[in-house]
Amino acid sequence: MDLINFRVGQKTISLKILDILLTERYEGDLTSLPNENPSFLGVKDYMGTPTPIFDLGIILNKKSSYDTNNALVELLKNREDEHRQWLQALERSVVKGQDFDKARDPKQCTFGQWLSNFKTENEDLKAILSRFEEPHNRLHALADKLLTLCEQDKKQQAITMLEKERATTYIKLMRLFESAREQISLDHKPIIVFTTQDGQKPHIGLLVDQVEDNIHCEEDEIKSLSEITNIGFEIDPQTKKMMQGLIKRGNTHSVLIDPSSIFRPEHLQGYEPEETESYGLF
């Protein structure tokens, strides 16, 4: 069978080409309806057919990619603020003789610990994060150098070195924090995958992060659901119902899903679309 792979958070899911009607950029232009299902985003009319849209990130990861990215951006803002406060504390120690109680080992600060453990499939973000090590290590090494100079009564030399590193190493680190946040925000361009059961009318739409590639898979390459639990899936009834198996190829894997297992909300029966100038329906 021919499949198309999509990225959803840190996971890859596969859909049969015959189950896909089309994909389009998600612009947030959905009609919201009351619903207790947290993955249900709203309804979008596709050529006269009101189509329920579900966030596949919430279904698979318990959290939308939008919220995950926002949390990561906020984390980086906090880590940036911590290093701003770190340098201010060092300056007070050098200039006013105050005790310096911040982390001197770059691997012991909160950001250093996070950086050594964080994993991402975003190659651009990965490249930016790899550039943090040099300025981050250099900034933390500054504490011992400056405080040693102060102990040797070389306060002015320490102040001169501090100002130099503030204009170079520190600025470089701050720009990397900004670049990482921008990459996270700009790279997230979710799309809606309109699925179909008859090849003509849409059944549901699934919100995913991006298209990855297309593959051809034989039936015997699809493993049982029991293997999915070994790669980080906590399978609830709704999720288990839509999963057909695991496709493993070398070190990569994807989960084959059946979108027809997600049923349309009953209240769509009374849904009345609004007219628009584009093609008469919203």
From TrEMBL:
<dbReference type="InterPro" id="IPR025991">
    <property type="entry name" value="Chemoreceptor_zinc-bind_dom"/>
</dbReference>
<dbReference type="GO" id="GO:0006935">
    <property type="term" value="P:chemotaxis"/>
</dbReference>
<dbReference type="Pfam" id="PF13682">
    <property type="entry name" value="CZB"/>
</dbReference>
<protein>
    <submittedName>
        <fullName>Chemotaxis protein</fullName>
    </submittedName>
</protein>
<feature type="domain" description="Chemoreceptor zinc-binding">
    <location>
        <begin position="83"/>
        <end position="146"/>
    </location>
</feature>
<dbReference type="GO" id="GO:0007165">
    <property type="term" value="P:signal transduction"/>
</dbReference>
<dbReference type="InterPro" id="IPR036061">
    <property type="entry name" value="CheW-like_dom_sf"/>
</dbReference>
